[in-house]
Request: fold
Amino acid sequence: MDTRETYSIILAKQDGLQDRTRIMQVFREYTRINPDISEVAAKHSAGFIAEKISREEVFAVGKICMNNNVEIFIVTDASTAVLPKADNCRYISCLSEEFGYSLDGTAKNIIEWSDVAVVCAGIIEEEKVTTTKHKEGPSAAQKLGSMAITMTTGLPIPLGRAKEVTKKVMETIVTNYLELIIYPPAPGQTPLRLKMNQDNIDYSYLAARREYSSPGNFRLVLEDIDKYAVKALRNHVFYSIIKKEPASLSRYEDYRYLEKELRWLMTLRQMKNKE
Reply:
């Protein structure tokens, strides 16, 4: 069994993914030394330039990053952050003095903003399947034909009963998500991970500021978090939504890439804490 240590190369700045041109160039040159890598991987890098590579490959990829002025950290795969299990959260309040949340709408938990360590927003494409049922009977042409035959021959022509037909319609919908990583004051404890879907959040804390659409309210929540969680690392989509930039530029077709980005920022936080 191969027991050699493997490494990951991650972007060293939280806004590193915004520089798409440089990242694309890095991956373009990376394909020349590793045929298993494609330029398409740049879109799904989510902060990771490379994962599970050897020490020899680290030097080669690191040189490519340096030549393209892309700042990186090199970490062992064993030291990359482990993503905790997500708690689906609906009830939140973002006030200047505290962040409040509840998983069931009853007991409210209060968190200091300084404990909010990572904030990730995601624009995700999801496949939605809708099932419809309706009855289909004889068509108008069949009914006229039957009537003509009956009038000619005098014999009734049975057409059969209407039958119930089930149809499944698949459509692609785009949904905004928000993930928060909260580190408890006590060292060694597992971080809290709160996951929110824009259509399921209770926005009542916004009061008079509340808008008529969930995307509008979602953006207001991000603006509040941006104002109060000053120590938290944020991803580029977080700012993209606040700035009302086109969603197509920051869209993921799979939630796994948002989780990968979340893991990158958690690892980046660990590295910055060591500095």
